What we know:
Layout: H1 15-22, E1 32-37, E2 46-49, E3 53-55, E4 59-60, E5 74-79, E6 84-91, E7 106-109, E8 111-116, H2 138-141, E9 146-148, H3 153-162
Parallel strand pairs: 1-5, 3-9
Antiparallel strand pairs: 1-9, 2-7, 3-4, 5-6, 6-8
Amino acid sequence: MTEAAGTTVDAEPTATEAAxxxxxxxxxxxxxxLRVHGYPVDLKEDTVRYDEFFDPKSGPLPGDPRQNLQPGxxxxxxxxxxxxxxxxxxxxxxxxxxxxxxxAEHWRVPIKAQxxxxxxxxxxxxAGLQPPSGWHFLRAARxxxxxxxxxxDGPYLVQQVKSRASTRATE
Length: 171
């Protein structure tokens, strides 16, 4: 805050500013996951069940979400109904769970949306995608919810979403 005399007075940081300064930045891990849904969902938070992880090189992965999803991982969202990729998010913390009550087999995955295509008819259709690795995720998407993507496919799919995403989606 500047006073009339032209001197600067240091103000106490607000609670939001203090939290922002204390919160460590999430560093990208370089790992990419394809998250399969039937139809597009709001990307405010995510849940996963045990035993829903797959890697095209090694097959099914350990079922515990904490062994697979790490802060900094990038998740590309795929809606199987319209067969389109439509969102990108970053995992912001370790999976939390298992949840109590009727969702006891579910785990909460904290995420932050990076890009979302609001109009699904503008989203890239899976049939037109050409992943650089040559491996296409469609067959695995029928059986698994989280698919670890080959290293070269993640940035390609992120670019496919971000090039069509609304700038208002993550504000």
